[in-house]
Amino acid sequence: MTEEFGVYVHLPYCPYKCHYCDFNAYRLPRAPEARREMTRAIAREIERAPGEDRGKKVGSVFFGGGTPSLFAPDEIAEILRAISGRYARSRRAEVTLECNPGTVDLAALVALRRAGVNRLSIGAQSFREETLTRIGRLHTPEETRSAVAMAREAGFRNISLDIIYGLPGETPEDAEESARIALSLGVEHLSAYALELEERTLFGRLEAQGKLELLPDDEVVRAGELVGAACEAAGLQRYEVSNFARPGRRSRHNMLYWHQGSYRGFGPGAHSHLSGHRFWNASPPGVYLSRVAAGGEAREEGEVLSSEAVMGEWVYLRLRLAEGFALRAFAQRFGQSLDAAYPGVRRDLLAQGLLERLPGWVRPTARGRWLLHRVAAPFLA
Amino acid sequence: MEAQRDHIRNFCIIAHIDHGKSTLADRLIEATGTLAAREMHEQVLDSMDLERERGITIKAQAVRLDYRREDGEVYELNLIDTPGHVDFSYEVSRSLAACEGAILVIDAAQGVEAQTLANLYLALEHDLEIIPVINKIDLPQADPERVREELERIGIDPDGAVLASAKEGRGIAEILEAVVDRVPPPTGDADAPLKALVFDSHFDAYRGVVCHVRVVDGALRSGGRIRLMATGAAYEVTDLGTFRPAPTLAGTLGAGEVGFFAAGIKNVRDARVGDTVTAAERGSPSPLPGYRPAVPMVFAGLYPSEPSRYDVLREALERLQLNDAALSFEPETSGALGFGFRCGFLGLLHLEIVQERLEREFDMDLVVTAPSVVYTIHYQGGAVERIENPAALHPERGVEQIDEPYVEATVIAPTTYVGAVMELCQERRGQFKTIDYPSPDRAVLTYLVPLGEIMYDFFDQLKSRTRGYASLDYQLVDSRPGDLVRVDVLLNAEVIDALSFICHRDQAEGQGRAVCEKLREVIPRQLFDVPIQAAVGGRVLARETIRALRKDVLAKCYGGDITRKRKLLEKQKEGKKRMRRLGQVEVPQEAFMAVLRRGD
């Protein structure tokens, strides 16, 4: 396998903030110049930021946010041009853009397609209108359907939908129903996430006050299993804890993360990983903009992983994959066997029924996948 | 300044907790100029941090006050402080034995309470002159008249009571006058062989054990050779003096005087409270009456959270014991907890204090098992064993009888709560003895109750059922047979010896169930179902199940999440170190105290 390289671009603005979201996202400033200013800063960072990653062959580009679809297609095109200037872009590179229903129209989608975007990740979250209102989304299920339809019309042949299960007020069957509707739209890829409560969000605060009615864990697991079964029935296979795809339609960009590959992130708060060295940009847009204006980059902090940390992380990330990993792959990568590096660990996990009994492979069982952090804990120093 | 014996007064202050004893002591020290006001550290006599924080006196101390009367005569007033908690009643009795008089402090709003009575009776046993002080008269709820009536009913002349507010400094002069006028000067024979009562001792890193003594006969001299009569060991006095309240050296302590000495004694066990000091040669033939070694009543296992800290724990216990003759410890092995110590305490407060000091002063992370009393087991064939740990009971050897310690509990409560108090005492297998009414709206009840029952949140229950109005005091009486059984607790089908407890057969099921429920709450979900059972002799009485953990995974892990999530996982792992692994089950430390909450 040739060494893949990925580029992540963080576009931090949203029209509104959802109740569960703790991403590095901010309401789009009223000033019409805000988007342009951010676009120019990111393009400048891509052009100027120092690093040995210059000239690498890029296999995937991912525009995340925030709501990247708030940006005009020519702004996305400007950033892509900057990327082409810094790197050698593979012709079959996957170029994904996250978008929210209600923020795109056909003309924009056509323009994005022309600019080089070839994959869309659309935030559906739920197909129940009352749920969408409750979680702070400002679009309707109908707008999600029409976003998918318009994307098809614009020529996108690789579309992913995001849904969330375990949302307040929803039963496992409600989540299953949302998944079925999403799948009925014929998408190539589905990400289904269990709701996670983050401290700094409205939901996190409500939960701390005991004001959020949530499913017990056992029911969340059941919801996840119903969603998973619906995906498999529709021909989308699970390939990661929360991700399902038709054959050949896995997210190349995300696979790079789980394979501990190298990538460079641009934009506020974006993270980079260049063979064992992780670093990240300043998160607040204002700080990011002024740093880039002053020095052409906005690096905030970083860490160089110890060899044990690289090894533990490698195992943890691959355990997230449904296929797991070959013992040989570990030995080739680290020059020792897994059992020598972590004596007794695999045997214990097998005995606990958390790993499948496969010759030469390490793969979590279905139960092990729900308890992945217990499975991974012994590998992390 | 050597005072004539008729110018010496030895007295103490006795009170129910929070009635203002320490504040009054501070005011007396201030008023006699023993310490200038600016030197006053609030509540001077309570010198340990813990005492100050908890507002209780753990170790008695003595301070000498030089009091100049209007007429110019100077009196030596020795104020002997006494511990204020029922756990330390033996120490109280020794302090009282060093006095001729006692100031009995009663809160003007609260009135007579259980410890007021218990302490008063102790003082009367020692023939002390009682000076009643009705304190806190500044409080809006103060009702001195009612307190006077209560005093009369308990046999104290209310006309002699001084009205005071130690907080505001009111009544202090009258109290000092009353001490001089009413407390008799010490008697004793200055020419007889030396006899001095050790009423307290503490360990000092530089001087060894410092004994607080009251000289009864003869004189104690710096450089003199002395002998401690309980152990027979002889020493040479290296330092001698009085506390004012800082130690002040003197050449001699004469008959009737109170002070301290050090003699190179290495351990407080060699100079125990209650022992008699005499001359090494031509000493007194008989000791002062009343000595008994402190007997621990409550036992608990103390285990280091990390087995590698066992030696550190032993050293810490040894250090604490230098200063705490009542603390005992023996190595112990638990199937569940590994190597630790079975420690003996005077009571639950004493246990808590030791635990807190180990954690605070020695940075120990401990697992403490639920405390147990001492049971006497009569096995078939006549063998008799005293056990301090329920796990040491061997039912397979054929148990004929189990005896448990009983106390006489005195409860004082408003008459409206008499029903509630009786109900509680009966639930706890108490046998009613007496009821008295010191005033129309207050009742004094005495019950014989198994000490084991008192230990399990009896006091908390008493407080909650009487809205905090009841007070409790108790004293060990004897041991009596009971229909007792050991309840074993099984986690994942394994008996956890550290969780076994002994209780009455009729309560076994209810308490077994309560323990199982408590454990289900405190033990986190594991990767598999964990059955919790309570059983007597293999018969399961109660069962709970901790359902297996189903989900422990973060849904998202993309480029920006990797660092954050790896750190989160590492932190989780750190948290697991604080758990104790019993077989396959991870158990948090508080689980071992679940047995204590079984009465809830």
Folded structure, characterized:
The complex is a heterodimer of chains A (381) and B (600). Chain A is α/β, with parallel strands linked by helices and 381 residues long. Chain A folds into two domains: 5-258, Aldolase class I (TIM Barrel), CATH 3.20.20.70; 325-380, no CATH class. Chain A contains 16 helices and 16 strands. In chain A, the strands form four sheets. In chain A, strands 9-10-8-7-6-5-4-1-11 form a nine-stranded mixed sheet, with helices on both faces. In chain A, strands 12-13-14 form a three-stranded antiparallel sheet, with no helix packed on it. In chain A, strands 2-3 form a two-stranded parallel ribbon. In chain A, helix 1 (33-48) packs parallel to helix 2 (73-86), helix 1 crosses helix 10 (285-295) and helix 6 runs parallel beside helix 8 (217-233). By secondary structure, chain B is α+β, with helices and mostly antiparallel strands. The A-B interface holds A 6, 8, 24, 64, 193-196, 217-218, 220-221, 241-242, 254, 257-258, 263, 265, 269-271, 273, 278, 280, 303, 309, 312-313, 316-317, 320, 352, 354, 369-374, 376-377, 380-381 and B 527-528, 547, 549-560, 562-563, 566, 569-570, 572-573, 576.
Work out the number of β strands of chain A. Answer: 16
Largest sheet of chain A: 9 strands, mixed
Radius of gyration of chain A: 21 Å
Number of helices of chain A: 16
Outline type of chain B: globular
The CATH homologous superfamily of the largest domain in chain A is named Aldolase class I
Poorly predicted tracts of residues of chain A: none
Strand percentage of chain A lies at 15-25%
Instruction: Categorize the overall geometry of chain A.
Output: globular
Helical content band of chain A = 40-55%
Structural class, from helix and strand content of chain B?
Answer: alpha+beta
Multimeric status of the protein:
heterodimer
Largest sheet of chain B: 8 strands, antiparallel
Overall pLDDT confidence of chain A: 94
Percent helix of chain B, as a range, is 10-25%
Helix count, DSSP H or I runs of 4 or more residues of chain B: 13
On the 0 to 100 scale, the average pLDDT of chain B is 87
Strand content of chain B: 25-35%
**Total discrete domains of chain A:** 2
> Which blocks of ≥5 consecutive residues of chain B have pLDDT under 50?
50-60
CATH class of the largest domain in chain A: Alpha Beta
